[in-house]
Design brief:
337 residues, alpha+beta, globular
Length: 337
């Protein structure tokens, strides 16, 4: 029997909490690790659980997320539980700050800093503006939905309606506008999201979906092979035949047969930022339009801006992501990261 110790165990730190996820996370076809949006969403959910509920002691204040800044550190393993460490950095009258680390086997795979703002803290008079949604986007959505309803499941995929994962997407053709190329897609969560938890579940779902085809914008606007040219991905048993066929069809449909195409060697997200403009007007189980454009790529990295509108045309969120975008090289490979 162990003897008494002269050193007392430290008391639980009230400024920190630990949340564990035991469910296996989605592993997209061809991805190196778990889907990054899942970790983003679960970090947001973990942080939200540490936010004080409205009460008489805080004047019935409601705090909603307005920004989160994330870094992908290591690829996550879908088969290993993720533990989320939440630190209560500051609780102010108008803003609350949290940091969250996602860890597997004791190693940090993802870290984020989140800021929550008190509703109504800006006063009655405010400065307001927001970029308008592209005028033809809602017409293209309605057309795609009509074609989807009239088509079989197989034909619907050929029309660009993708639904094999946790959310559905309708990808629109690349827009060539002056010197920049923009990619657009309509996206929504599968099924209906319960209203019992208020807007928090919709905010987490939007965070989840915001990582969809994000850094991949760089590959699309540069007309790069992402899947079909890679023998290793062709033989990967984790990628089902129909998923590979679908991804190859996507690439071929966007290919310019007159231009030689380089191949992606590695493409992963490095950091991810979300600004939630209108938390109350986000319904993630209804169609949201995500428009992506890449102002720069170089030195093996790429930068992408994303704007997200709800079906009513309100700009509800803006996102920024930088990622590693390295081409397949002819010479012997060097360390990847």
């Amino acid at each position: 029997m162990p003897g008494p110790t002269l050193i007392r165990a430290p008391p639980p730190d009230p400024a920190k909490s630990i949340i564990e996820n035991n469910r296996e996370l989605w592993h997209p076809p061809g991805a190196r690790g778990v889907y990054g949006g899942a970790v983003i969403a679960q970090c947001l959910s973990a942080a939200q659980q540490s936010i004080p509920s409205p009460s008489t002691s805080n004047g019935h204040a409601v705090f909603l997320i307005h920004s989160m800044h994330c870094y992908f550190v290591l690829a996550g393993d879908a088969a290993i539980p993720i533990v989320y460490y939440v630190e209560r950095v500051r609780d102010g009258k108008s803003f609350i700050t949290r940091t969250v680390q996602a860890r597997q086997k004791g190693k940090c795979i993802f870290t984020t800093t989140l800021s929550f703002v008190r509703e109504g803290s800006a006063g009655k008079a405010t400065v307001n503006h927001g970029w308008a949604m592209p005028a033809d986007a809602i017409v293209k959505l309605n057309t795609a939905l009509k074609e989807q309803n009239a088509a079989s499941d197989t034909d619907a995929e050929a029309l660009g309606v993708q639904g094999s994962g946790p959310f559905e997407t309708i990808r629109l053709p690349i827009e060539n506008i002056i010197a920049t190329k923009k990619t657009r897609q309509w996206v929504k969560a599968r099924g209906r999201i319960s209203s019992a938890s208020g807007p928090q579940s919709h905010l987490s779902a939007l965070a989840y979906m915001s990582d969809s085809y994000f850094i991949g914008t760089v590959a699309r606007v540069h007309n790069l092979w992402r899947f079909s040219s890679s023998p290793s991905k062709r033989s990967n048993p984790k990628i089902k035949d129909h998923d590979m066929a679908r991804m190859e069809d996507e690439e071929n449909s966007e290919a310019d047969s007159q231009t030689p195409r380089a191949s992606i060697g590695i493409m992963v997200s490095l950091d991810h930022t979300i600004y939630f403009h209108r938390p109350r007007e986000i319904r993630a189980d209804d169609w949201l339009l995500a428009e992506n454009e890449s102002p720069w790529s170089g030195d093996g990295r790429g930068l992408v801006f994303q704007r997200i509108w709800n079906r009513e045309g309100v700009l509800v969120a803006s996102c920024v992501q930088e990622g590693l975008v390295r081409l397949a090289q002819d010479e012997p490979s060097k360390p990847k990261l």
